[in-house]
């Protein structure tokens, strides 16, 4: 059991290290040279570099120190200690990989879209591995959290407002294309983050509302060799009681089950979702 826990912790820290390294590569090799404002501390660094002229990596380092102090003043040491490691590793990674544009020469003028997509992949890897392990990197997380607490709004809303303002400022300073590229990066990276955090689903979950539950249940057991659960349900519109069946099947059997349901009950209503994880006691 102890070895299992130690192995799990080792994997956790390896994933965090990969995530932080990916952030450093993403910023230095893609986001910074392209001057794409996607929010966060990287967006602030690009804006301040353009307006004030301060070096981007230097700004990030100073900003992270200031945000740790701000969090300490507002929330105290107990809350702040969870930010300290991330507030050291993220700026360290940004500074450590600052040499990359000097040895890896990319055509930023003619391959802007392609490089944005590659940058988004690194951004997604960084976010996926850090979020998966509940690792906080600090930075703009602090003002977003303060906005959420003081203005009584969900954290997701605070994030959208804060980063949205930065992206709009980036569009105002660098042009409308900057906003479009930022949207592409955020969309692609969010998909990769979801895949890393949730995994790649190879199963489908069916929720089946039918008036012929026994026939469908027996057919599923016979033809697909999988378990199925029956749940009492009441329709919200007509308040009619139904029998709802729930089962998880391999994705390869999706079409087979769909045809099977329609063959038995053409009036059946069913919902299909991805299933990422199943846990049960034997």
Explain what you see.
With 282 residues, this protein is α+β, with helices and mostly antiparallel strands. The protein has 2 domains: 2-198, no CATH class; 203-275, Alpha-Beta Plaits. The protein has helices spanning 2-34, 40-51, 56-75, 77-96, 100-103, 112-132, 141-150, 155-174, 176-198, 213-224, 254-264, and strands spanning 203-210, 229-234, 241-250, 269-275. It has a 4-stranded antiparallel β-sheet, covered by helices on one side. A hairpin with a 6-residue loop joins strand 2 (229-234) and strand 3. The longest helix is centred in the first third of the chain and has 33 residues, at 2-34. The radius of gyration is 24 Å and the shape is elongated.
Structure classification: alpha+beta
Low-confidence stretches: none
Whole-number radius of gyration?
24 Å
Number of individual domains: 2
Distance between the ends: 19 Å
Following the backbone from N to C, one meets helices and strands in this order, namely: HHHHHHHHHEHEEHE
* Main sheet properties: 4 strands, antiparallel
Number of strands: 4
**Mean pLDDT, nearest integer?**
86
Q: Percent of residues in helical segments?
A: 55-70%
Strand content: 5-15%
Count of alpha/pi helices:
11
| Strand order in space, largest sheet | 2-3-1-4
What shape does the CA trace take? elongated
Helices and strands, with pairings:
Elements: H1 2-34, H2 40-51, H3 56-75, H4 77-96, H5 100-103, H6 112-132, H7 141-150, H8 155-174, H9 176-198, E1 203-210, H10 213-224, E2 229-234, E3 241-250, H11 254-264, E4 269-275
Antiparallel strand pairs: 1-3, 1-4, 2-3
């Amino acid at each position: 059991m102890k070895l299992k826990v130690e192995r799990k912790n080792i994997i956790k820290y390896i994933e965090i290290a990969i995530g932080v390294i990916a952030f450093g590569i993403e910023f230095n090799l893609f986001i910074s040279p392209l001057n794409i404002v996607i929010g966060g501390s990287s967006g602030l660094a690009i804006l301040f570099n353009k307006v004030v002229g301060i070096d981007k990596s230097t700004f990030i380092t100073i900003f992270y120190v200031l945000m740790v102090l701000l969090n300490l003043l507002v929330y105290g040491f107990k809350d702040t200690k969870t930010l300290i490691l991330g507030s050291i590793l993220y700026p360290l990674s940004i500074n450590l990989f600052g040499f990359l544009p000097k040895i890896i020469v990319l055509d930023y003028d003619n391959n802007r879209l392609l490089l944005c997509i590659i940058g988004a992949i690194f951004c997604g890897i960084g976010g996926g591995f850090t979020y998966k392990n509940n690792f906080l990197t600090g930075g703009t997380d602090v003002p977003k959290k303060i906005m959420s607490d003081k203005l009584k709004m969900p954290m997701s809303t605070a994030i959208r407002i804060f980063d949205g303002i930065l992206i709009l400022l980036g569009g105002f300073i660098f042009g409308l294309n900057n906003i479009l590229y930022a949207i592409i990066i955020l969309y692609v990276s969010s998909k990769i983050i979801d895949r890393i955090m949730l995994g790649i689903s190879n199963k489908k979950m069916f929720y089946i509302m039918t008036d012929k539950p026994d026939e469908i249940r027996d057919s599923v057991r016979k033809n697909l060799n999988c378990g199925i659960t029956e749940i009492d349900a009441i329709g919200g519109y007509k308040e009619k009681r139904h029998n709802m069946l729930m089962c998880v099947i391999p994705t390869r059997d999706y079409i087979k089950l769909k045809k099977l349901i329609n063959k038995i009950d053409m009036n059946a209503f069913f919902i299909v979702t991805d299933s990422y994880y199943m846990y049960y006691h034997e």
